[in-house]
Amino acid sequence: MAFNVLLVFFQVVMRYVFHNSLSWSEELARYIFLWQTWLGASYAVRQRRHLRVEMVADRFRGRNRVRFELFVLVVWFAFSLFLAYQGSRMTLFLVRTGQLSAAMRIPISWAYASVPVGCAMMALRLVGEVRLVLRRLEEEAV
Questions:
Q1: 100's torsion region: left (phi>0), alpha (psi -120 to 50) or beta?
Q2: What angle do CA 30, 7, 45 make, to 5 degrees?
Q3: What residues are paired with 21 via a beta bridge?
Q4: Which tens digit of pLDDT belongs to each residue from 112-128?
Q5: pTM, 2 dp
Q6: Average pLDDT, the chain
Q7: Which residue, 20, 64, 68, 135, shows the most beta carbons closer than 10 Å to its own?
Q8: CA 32, CA 105: separation in Å to the nearest integer?
Q9: Residue 115: CA atoms inside 13 Å, Cβ hemisphere, count?
């Protein structure tokens, strides 16, 4: 993230102080931001730091609360797999067509690959979360 901040700062200095902006810096900052976002979503699952709306979950107690948590995780897992699959299809399409980015002339598929990679990692981490919830469900059964 520090590199991205420095890159954008350098671009602003070049544009407003030297009146000569760099053609590639904004594009690179955008691609880095995409990767940070999708990898960060996976990391947030591991840290249990995703934003949650607890209004519905607060209506449940005990085993029903744990079951509801399990339901939410399974839906989230399915959605992550869906995004990983669709993101992979889009990335492979871009690989086949050979599209290049406008400024840096690198394969545009590198930027799009952040979605399937981040979502696949998120799905893997959600499997771990489901295992923890299932363990809680078993403990409450005893």
A1: beta
A2: 50
A3: none
A4: 999 999 999 999 999 99
A5: 0.88
A6: 94
A7: 68
A8: 15
A9: 17
Question: What sign has the CA pseudo-torsion 46, 128, 75, 138?
Answer: negative
> Which of 89, 85, 93 has its CA nearest to residue 120?
85
The rounded distance, in Å, linking the Cα atoms of 65 and 52 is 14
Q: CA 83: distance to chain centroid?
A: 10
What tens digit of pLDDT does each residue of 68-95 get?
A: 999 999 999 999 999 999 999 999 999 9
Task: Measure the CA–CA gap between 73 and 100, rounded to whole angstroms.
Answer: 37
Instruction: Give the DSSP H or E segment for 58.
Output: none
Sign of the CA dihedral running 84, 85, 90, 95 = positive
Q: Are 119 and 83 in contact (CB under 8 A)?
A: yes
Alpha helix (H) residue ranges in the chain = 2-16, 25-47, 62-97, 109-112, 114-141
Distance (Å, whole) CA 30 – CA 28: 5
Residue with tokens 């002339």: 105
CA distances from 77 to 30, 84, 104 (A): 27, 10, 35
